[in-house]
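Hi V.,

Quick status before I head out on leave. The structure for the redesign project is tokenized and pasted below; the design run finished overnight.
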């Protein structure tokens, strides 16, 4: 057990040296600043994710249940979770995810045109976020809602869900976003109840229900809010990946020389630049993990960002290397709560990057000294680049 442990500021600045030390010295560690047990090794993180009898997502006191509602798919367990998941699993199939590439590239091309005639831009705010949020909105059946509104909702929810300082402004903004979603999307659900279509939203409402019936709107809205909270995460992944490529000239040159390796670069970005760094569970009972006793009711934080760099699984794991042999990582979840969009997100990110690198400026250079920050969510606040 770690008696003091890292501070929130230290984790926000750069958690990776801390994770490396914990993996070596205290892989299951009590961290007072988090009021939680932090798990940092690959095999332990997988075990926490895959043992529902010991570690559960069902936690009525968690911010996710508070803001999104206790019926969201991530908080549900057992048969109720399986029923909701089965109803939409095929909506996020590899085939449907692949079909999203064309409309993502069209959205990206339109967004690139807004940068024409300029010699610099903030790619986070002016390209990656608008493109990926719009692509996700269209995929989900929310194309009638402006991408700027979807991004606003996502930010408000993210800020409220991760609010260690208990900032009242962030909490109020989160509540306001919840009310807006209930009103705007609630009206859309009433339309879909009468006239269903093939959108994910419509499937969430009706699939798995007896003919002519549908789920309660509250249940659908609960899961949708959880999904909306993650709408900006693909933009963070795209930014982290491009940052890694631009920080290593040989990697970007290899990609320029052979655009076919972009998929490998995104796969490596998913591992190296995980936008969500930790996932939470609640200990169902007293349980031993890697020789450490965790008491029932304790919060357990699995550091997937640390697991993705575990040197026993990924040699030289701290390095971004698009030539790394493909291997599974934990960024998009594992086991019963693996991300529904595990196929979709990399394809949207790859399409956004491909359009930028193929149709955008031939030369890109970072104009600010920036790097990703954060431990719960790791991202670039901005990525200002210039070109000739």
């Amino acid at each position: 057990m770690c008696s003091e442990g890292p501070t929130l500021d230290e984790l926000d600045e750069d958690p990776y040296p801390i994770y490396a030390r914990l993996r070596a010295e205290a892989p299951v560690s009590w961290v007072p600043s988090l009021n939680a047990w932090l798990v940092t090794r690959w095999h332990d993180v997988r075990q926490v994710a895959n043992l529902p009898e010991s570690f559960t997502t069902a936690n009525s006191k968690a911010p996710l249940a508070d803001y999104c509602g206790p019926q969201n798919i991530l908080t549900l367990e057992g048969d109720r979770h399986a029923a909701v998941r089965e109803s939409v699993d095929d909506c996020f199939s590899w085939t449907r995810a692949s079909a999203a590439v064309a409309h993502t590239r069209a959205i990206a091309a339109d967004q690139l045109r807004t940068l024409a005639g300029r010699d610099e831009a903030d790619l986070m705010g002016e390209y990656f976020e608008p493109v990926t949020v719009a692509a996700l909105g269209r995929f989900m059946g929310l194309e009638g809602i402006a991408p700027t509104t979807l991004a606003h909702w996502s930010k408000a929810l993210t800020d409220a869900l991760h609010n260690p300082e208990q900032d009242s402004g962030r909490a109020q903004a989160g509540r306001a976003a919840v009310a807006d979603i209930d009103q705007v999307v609630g009206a859309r659900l009433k339309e879909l109840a009468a006239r269903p279509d093939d959108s994910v939203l419509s499937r969430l409402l009706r699939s798995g229900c007896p003919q002519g019936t549908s789920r309660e709107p509250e249940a659908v809205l609960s899961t949708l809010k959880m999904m909306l909270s993650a709408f900006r995460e693909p933009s963070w992944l795209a930014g982290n990946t491009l940052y890694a490529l631009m920080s290593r000239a040989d990697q970007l040159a290899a990609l320029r020389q052979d655009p076919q390796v972009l998929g490998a670069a995104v796969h490596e970005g998913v591992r190296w630049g995980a936008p969500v760094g930790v996932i939470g569970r609640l200990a169902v009972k007293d349980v031993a993990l890697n020789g450490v006793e965790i008491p029932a009711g304790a919060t357990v934080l699995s550091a997937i960002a640390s697991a993705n760099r575990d040197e026993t699984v990924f040699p030289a794991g701290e390095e971004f290397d698009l030539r790394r042999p493909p291997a599974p990582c934990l960024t998009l979840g594992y086991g019963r709560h693996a991300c529904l969009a595990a196929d979709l997100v990399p394809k949207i990110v790859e399409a956004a990057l491909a359009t930028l690198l193929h149709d955008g400026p031939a030369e890109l250079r970072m104009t600010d000294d920036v790097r990703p920050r954060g431990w719960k969510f790791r991202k670039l606040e901005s990525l200002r680049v210039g070109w000739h």
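Above is the designed sequence. The chain has 16 helices and ten strands.

G. will cover questions while I'm gone.

Best,
W.
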